[in-house]
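Protein modeling request. Please complete all fields; requests missing the sequence field cannot be processed.
Requester role: graduate student
Desired output: 3D structure, token encoding
Chains: 1
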Amino acid sequence: MATTAKPVRPGQVEVDSAAASIGPAWRQYLRALGPGLVTGASDDDPSGVATYAQAGAKFGFGMLWSSLITLPLMTGVQEICDRTALASGQGLGELVTRKFSATWRLVIGALLATLIGANALNIAADLVAIGEGAHLLHLGPTWVWALLSGSLISVLVVSGSFRLIARVFKILCLALLAYVGVFLAVHVPWAEVGAHTIVPRVQFSKDYLALLVGVLGTTISPYLFFWQSAHRLEEMREEPEGGTETPLPLKRRSRKDAQHKLRTSRLDVFTGMAFSNLVMFAIIVATAVTIGRHGQHDIRSAAQAADALRPVAGRFASALFAAGFIGSGMLAVPVLAGAGSAGMAGLLGRPSGFSRSLRQAPVFYLLVAVGTVGGMALSLIGIDPVHLLVLVAIVNGMAAAPFLAVVMIISEDRSIMGRYVNGHVARALGWATVALMAAAAVGLLATA
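Delivered output (448 residues):
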């Protein structure tokens, strides 16, 4: 049902949001899910899966406590990124041009260029993981599926409508339930799990601290900041409010509709981050009670984790694990390619977004091609994906704090955000995350 809109006063549109509130509560909830869910699910890509599996296989339940830290911080950060798009109707790249001087824009642009390069390396590693997963399921050679999946994703994002892309994204999120399936298929000593989750047991060894930094860097990655904002804008362009493809910011909506949009968007973000952390928790527990109980193992890829599960948890658990990172990899590749590209296009004053055609946003799609095609090429020349992920971890670890500081400065500017500037809780969570990621970057350098 289309919503109706009529002008109320200059600069504002009155929107009848009753259509969004019709139907059972569960249907309203599912309708609200979108950018937040996709962002959270894409965070659990094969490189993240490998990191979490390594944590469980090598240190058992010793890192479960980190999930209690990452959940509120990750949720706070992504809600802030989401709110900048809602309040301004612009992406983070565009907001950088509004807030910062030319010198700082050059610095941020250099960081974005580095992020696009790092994302291309991550795409290569994810495509290799997709191929390895298909090989484990006896579907064919690794390189064939790496090339096929990269080509399929490229065709989808260039020729498909955003509604189709968004629907495919949501379906791919379901692949992560495979990890919960593995989690439920093994025997879990819940008392021990609860104790390790609530009470941190930090080991001050080089291996433990390096992996802890990896877990933090994988969970709170800079590309997620740009994707959350970009995907929310894509969703807003698809709305009938305003009557054009231009996103209608909260400040131009009626108070009632603005509150409804803000509430449903927060629900989406909170759900996505909780889902992401649940998957992280499930992978660590599942690998800890299976692979980890048979001695410490050095898991270097998601495929190796799936293969190692077979003799101790059965072929079914191994197949579920492989299916999980195939689906999550297919989801993560366009997110990785689109995130930095949207930020750079916005910084250059160019249109961006998968909801626009190739002719409407040529710079954006050129940058997406650099990431996707570059990743495909790297995946085919036999580069060790583990080495790629180490380099990506270093780049992400070093870039997370500066990018997040930029987000915090923008989200606290009342001229940009209006009445939707950060409150006390958002400000505390955001700057605490900046401090944590800065410390993680120092730790990464110390342990590298």
